[in-house]
Amino acid sequence: MFNSQEIISTIEMVKNEHLDVRAVTLGINLFDCISHDLNVFKKNVRNKIVKKASNLVSICDAVGEKYGIAVVNKRISISPIALVAAPFSASEMVEIAHTLNDVAREVNIDFLGGFSALVEKGIAVGDSSLIEALPEALAQTQRLCASVNVATTRSGINMDAVLQMARAIKKASELSKADDGLACAKLCVFANIPQDMPFMAGAYLGVGEADAVINVGVSGPGVVKKAIERAVEQSPNIDLGKIAEIIKNTACKVTRVGELIGREVAENLNIRFGVVDLSLAPTPTVGDSIGEIFQTLGLTSIGVPGSTAALAMLNDAVKKGGAFASSHVGGLSGAFIPVSEDLNIAEAAANGYLSIEKLEAMTCVCSVGLDMVPVPGDISEETLAGIIADEMAIGMINNKTTATRIIPVPGKKAGDKVSFGGLLGEATIMNVPHATNRDVFVTRGGRIPAPIHSLKN
C-alpha cells in the first residue's frame, strides 16, 4: 500500500510529468477463423475483431477520464497471420492486410499488429507467403504492423530469413518512397520475441494465449527524469546506487497505475487481464525523452562513454520496480532507445555523439534494439542483412529480446534530415559502413546454431 505522500507524488506525475498509459492492446485469437476460402477467412476475421473490439476505444476513454489518466493509444494484436492464413499466396496475404487495415479503421484503433511470422528454425509455406507480401502490405496500409522472429536462444539464427527480411525492408522502402520509406517503420525483425507485447510495431498474440486478453503498456521517461532531478537537486552528490533505488520506486508507482487502468478496461470488456509492460517508450515531446535521463544522470549526451552503463542501470531498475508492483509484468518492460521517436536521441545522433556502432553496443542492455534508425536509401541488402544478423546475435547469445526497425530513406544520404511525423518523429540519417562484394557471409544462408547455454533441459 502507498502512503499519502506517495499518492500525492503519483498525482503529480499525471499532472505535470507526462505520465500516461501509452497503450491498451486487445489481443484476439484468430485460430477459430481459419478457412481455405479467402473470402470466408476475411469475413470470419472481420466479424471476430468487430465483436471483440467494438467497445475498446470508448471503454478506454471512459476509464481514462474516470482516473484522469490518458490512454494514448488503443491497439489490437492478433494471432500470427502466417499461421492462421497459411494456405494463402502472397497476393492473397496482401488482400488480408487490407481487410485488417479496414477493420482497424472501423473499430477506430490506432494500430493492429500481428501480420507476423515465426521463422527462427525454418520457413513454412505460410511464412514464405507473408514475407513476400510484406512490402506491398505495409506500403498500401496505414494501421497495419508486422513482425518476423528470425532467431531465438534455443534455435539459433535463421540466416535465410535474415536475408529475406533485408530484401523485404529494401523493397518496402522503395514502395513507400513518397513517404521517405515510412512502411519500414511498421516492421520489426526480432530475436526472442515475447508473445504478450502491447507495444507496436512488434505486437502479436502468442499461440499460448487465451481467446482474448488485455495487455497494457505504460511509459514514463518524463516521470523518471523528474524523480532523478529532484533527488540530485536535494543531494548533488547522490551516488548511483541511491539513484537506482529512486528509479525502481518510480517504476513501481507507474506499474501500479498501468495495472489499475488495464484491469478496469478488461473487466468492462469482460476479457481477462494479461500483463503490464513497463517500457520507457519516449515521444518527440521535450521532457518525455530517454535521452534526457542520461543528461540528468550526469552525461553530456546519450552516446558518450558511460552511456551503456547508465542504460544498464536504468533498464534493471525499471524491471525491478515493475516486478515488485505486479505479478503480471510482461512484454519487454525496460527502456527503448528509438532514434527518431526521441528528440534528444535524434539530436545526439545529429551532433555526432551517437553512432550506429555505439547504438548497437547499447542494445546489449536495453529492452529492444536498433529502433527507428534511418539509414541511407542506397544501403545494400547485404549490409542490411549484416546489421540485422549482428543484432540477432546479441539477442541469441544474451538470452534477451532484440529487434531491428531500420528505415532506408530513398534518395537520401547520411547527414540528411528526414521527418516521419507524429509520434515517429524526425532524425538525421545515420552513417552506415557499406558491405562490399567481398562480404558474402550473409548470403551463405543456413542456420547459425544455438549457443551452448541453450541446452537447459
SSE series: HEHHEHHEHEEHEEHHEHHHHEHEEEE
CATH architecture: Alpha-Beta Barrel
How many structural domains?
1
Mean pLDDT: 90
What is the oligomeric state here?
Answer: single chain
Shape call: globular
Helix content: 40-55%
Identify low-pLDDT runs. none
Structural classification: alpha/beta
CATH topology descriptor: Anaerobic Ribonucleotide-triphosphate Reductase Large Chain
Beta-strand proportion: 15-25%
| Biggest pleated-sheet summary | 11 strands, mixed
Output the number of helix runs.
14
Radius of gyration over C-alpha positions, nearest whole angstrom: 21 Å
State the end-to-end distance. Answer: 39 Å
- Please give the CATH class: Alpha Beta
Number of strands: 13
Q: What's the topology here?
A:
Elements: H1 4-16, E1 21-28, H2 38-53, H3 56-67, E2 71-78, H4 81-84, H5 90-106, E3 111-118, H6 125-139, E4 144-152, E5 156-158, H7 159-175, E6 187-191, E7 212-218, H8 221-234, H9 240-269, E8 272-278, H10 290-297, H11 307-325, H12 343-350, H13 356-362, E9 370-376, H14 381-398, E10 402-409, E11 417-419, E12 426-428, E13 447-448
Helix pairs in contact: 2-5, 3-9, 5-6, 6-7, 7-14, 8-9, 8-10, 9-11
Describe it for me?
This protein has a single domain, classed as Anaerobic Ribonucleotide-triphosphate Reductase Large Chain (Alpha-Beta Barrel). Helix content is 43%, strand content 17%. The protein has 14 helices and 13 strands. It has helices at 4-16, 38-53, 56-67, 81-84, 90-106, 125-139, 159-175, 221-234, 240-269, 290-297, 307-325, 343-350, 356-362, 381-398; strands spanning 21-28, 71-78, 111-118, 144-152, 156-158, 187-191, 212-218, 272-278, 370-376, 402-409, 417-419, 426-428, 447-448.
